[in-house]
Fold:
Amino acid sequence: MIEKTKVFFIKLNEIEKIKNLLPEFGVSPVVKVHFGERGCDTFVPAKYIKQITDNLDQPTFIETSVLYKSQRRTASGHLDVAKEHGFDWLTIDFLDGEEGDDFIEIKIKGNYFSECYLGRGLEKYKELLVISHFKGHGGSGFGGAIKNLGMGLASRKGKLAMHASIKHNIQKEKCISCGSCISHCPVSAIEFDDNKKAFIKQHKCISCSKCISVCPVGAVKIPWGSTGRKELGEKIAEYAYAAQLNRKCFYINFLINITKECDCNDVHMEPVIPDIGILASSDPVAIDQASYDLAVKQSSAAENFNSDPQLHYAEEIGLGSRDYELINL
Ligand code: SF4
Ligand code: SF4
Structure:
């Protein structure tokens, strides 16, 4: 009989029990968390992250830049937000560099991608603790371990590849003709039109996303929503698969402050599901499946979080198993 994947449940007020579950990491394991967008206050609080990671030997935290216009679009801005949110004691390695454009290509045989663009810094790390906030996500249903791993470790080019099925373009009414995108485009795909408004020559564009990061007024429009929920979820699963390849990983999901939208929103959001607790597992698919199942049991509001296609696909490509055994600690 095949043994089911173990997923451990820990009450929030017994968080210290997690230290007995952590695998044998060596010196300087890395920890992936989400520091929350400025204005958001429902990310996993710094005090809980500290309680867990104080059990590790000299951990380094890792992050990548976001795709959209935000303080977290650059490493230095992201660091400021992390500090504002109480993450002021740790060392953070921004894997994709200051501008989010430093990446490595990981080869996979996916239905969507044959190569995934992850933050270059990931290359040097072989042990990874992924601490995720389970909550809803407008694009993919919910965000948990798979999303934190796949989207969270992708460079901006990778994030764009997952989010957009069609090419981005420039909104002429917003363009202030500064020329920054033109001077930064690595393949000279952007020019001014007769009215000195920038436009992209789509046949030349290699989707590096540089113009998105350098435009001071957010005139480069990302076609959010051009990738449907199923496709986005499956693409994230492929990136998550690439991120964990040849790495020793362990996953912790916090099922608290469960909001309808994710921590990339720059506003206060009311939780829609009462707090549940913490899950821990060595399997990103099992822990996300268990998170979703517990959330549905807790409240019908979680039915909107349905990410079945992602979980099925993640299992199909060998990222993990949906068949788990829940163990109460
Ligand atoms: S995404 Fe990159 S290649 Fe395409 S237009 Fe923008 S800067 Fe140029
Ligand atoms: S960087 Fe933005 S504002 Fe400047 S020219 Fe390009 S699109 Fe226009």
User: Anything to note?
Assistant: The two ends are 24 Å apart (CA to CA). The domain at 167-221 is CATH 3.30.70.20 (Alpha-Beta Plaits).
